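Schema walkthrough. Field components (list of strings):
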Amino acid sequence: MKVQFKQVGMSFGNVRVLEDIDLAVREGEFVCLLGPSGCGKSTLLNIVGGFLRPAEGEVTIDDEPVTAPDPRRIFVFQERGVFPWLTVEENIGFGLFRHTEEERRERIAYYVQLVGLRGFEQSYPRELSGGMKQRLEVARALAVNPDVLYLDEPFGALDSITRLQMRRELLRIWHAEKKTILFVTHDIEESVQLADRVVVLSARPGRIRRIVDIDIPHPRDLSDPRYIALRDEIFGEIGLAHQV
Amino acid sequence: MAAWQAAVLAAPATLVPTPLQAVRAIVELAAKGLLFRYIVASLFRVTWGYLGALAIAVPLGMLLGLWRRGELAMNPMLQLLRPISPLAWIPIAILWFGVGDVSAMFLILLASVLPLTMTTVHAVHNIEGVHLAAGRNFGLSPRELVRSVIFPGILPQLIVGMRITLGIAWLVVVAAEMIAVNSGLGFLIVDARNAGNRYDLVVAGMILIGAIGVVLDLLMRKLERLPSLRWGYVAD
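Field assembly_structure (string):
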């Protein structure tokens, strides 16, 4: 198992945020952590990312306990995570400071291409759209060749059309790069479109209510009866009638 | 200008010069070779006092901005020193450094170091948490984090503070030169009055001080246009 959560619990002061999280993620798997706002899913991602220490239990990656952030596992924030004082190229090269100049150049060129930012190498983030900034941040993360990516509601600030495109892009990159991905979202549709497995968390304190296998091959047809069945199952699990 | 000219003509007994007399006084200074010498003398003091202040304030401000306890310990003292006009230090400056350049530079340093430190502390507090987190995630050592994330992150705000502080330093040099030295534009003003009520030279000095102040401000504003700093000044 790549990533293992063992009996993880977390409190902030008297507020119980997470309880009894047991989860094992396989290498190369795409797992969505899904839950209502404030259920502790971002906290869980910060724990596995090494930014927070859990109050109870532990997280291991390749059987090593996680104690601090590590460049082998990169966290992707919402688009404001890119450095506004660096150009696209410099942002992608940010984590490559231990590489030779030539390696740096090659990797930057490769990832500029992969995330479709050709022609914007010298642009600053403020000159890019929200979707482009998000792709830039993904490129910056991928450039250091991590084996795990953590994404914390990465498309939350984008408009719905861009969000759909970004999901397709992310899946394309995931197929090309074969990373293990942990993806936090509160969007049910998003989780069913992306994940191999959806981990449904309860409201605070967050516990795992259910883990749903999404056994539909990519590319997923959003009108496929299986897609709709799984989506509705999760809607039901969260306690929402699928009606507006 | 016309109002100035008219006002002086309407009250002929006044010692205040007309604009033309003030310009003639500037020409006279230039002819005597004093114009260039005084301007250089004032700029020299401002430059070194101000650079000294930057060399102290930026590292100190970063330290206090990152180290909460240090800030809590130092803050009462900084707040107490802040309302004291740098000019109140003139007697102490002369006591320590005598009458001369060092006193003037010390006063400029004093006047600049607090606002620059405060600016740096605030700028460090305003750094985006996600930028620090990303820096740590990519495995930066604390030193690399300061160089590659914290310093560029505070730079736009720091430069605004630097521009305002340079204005203060320029105010202070004139006052310091009136007392602590015998060259420079501040000295020119006091000396012109003492040596025979040459108010044309007084006004000439004032005009020069104003013009150089504007030029310094424009130069600092230029920095704010650098492409790697623009993000700090425009909302996206």
